[in-house]
Write a sequence for this structure.
């Protein structure tokens, strides 16, 4: 069954996602968050331990369907192969960076009346769909400051 929720929370710390008005609970000992803002698009990458890192940014697309379309149309950076899981507000996709197999996951969160995209990072995606799923669960720990 695993540790009690209180014990699990004891291993987590709050990390500010500046310049976004958000924070997230992540495992202790990570390297924190880095502002990745480009122009007007506020974006932060945060270390989440074994599952890698997440990028959280303001959703500039009109809908999450547009985020999916963008992933599906990638032929260069993380060439899209197929969706492994796909629903209205999140997905895990298989990608083929440099002919290798990788996975990316993304989910949309509405916090404080604004929409944000929380997605896995990495130049080759992550190694398995399960790692992507585990990373997306961490997105559930984002909250308004």
């Amino acid at each position: 069954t695993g540790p009690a929720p209180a014990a699990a929370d004891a291993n987590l710390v709050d990390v500010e996602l500046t310049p976004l008005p958000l924070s997230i609970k992540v495992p202790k000992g990570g390297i924190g968050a880095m502002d990745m803002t480009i122009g007007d698009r506020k974006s932060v990458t945060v270390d989440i331990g074994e599952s890698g890192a997440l990028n959280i940014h303001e959703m500039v697309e009109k809908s999450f369907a547009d985020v999916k379309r963008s992933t599906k149309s990638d032929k260069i950076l993380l060439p899209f192969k197929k969706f492994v899981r796909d629903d209205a507000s999140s997905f895990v996709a298989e990608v083929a960076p440099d002919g290798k197999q990788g996975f990316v996951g993304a989910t949309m969160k509405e916090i404080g009346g604004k929409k944000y995209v929380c997605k896995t990072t990495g130049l080759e995606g992550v190694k398995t769909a399960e790692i992507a799923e585990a990373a997306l669960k961490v997105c559930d720990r984002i909250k308004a400051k």
Notes: The helical segments are 5-10, 64-72, 129-139. The chain has three helices and ten strands.
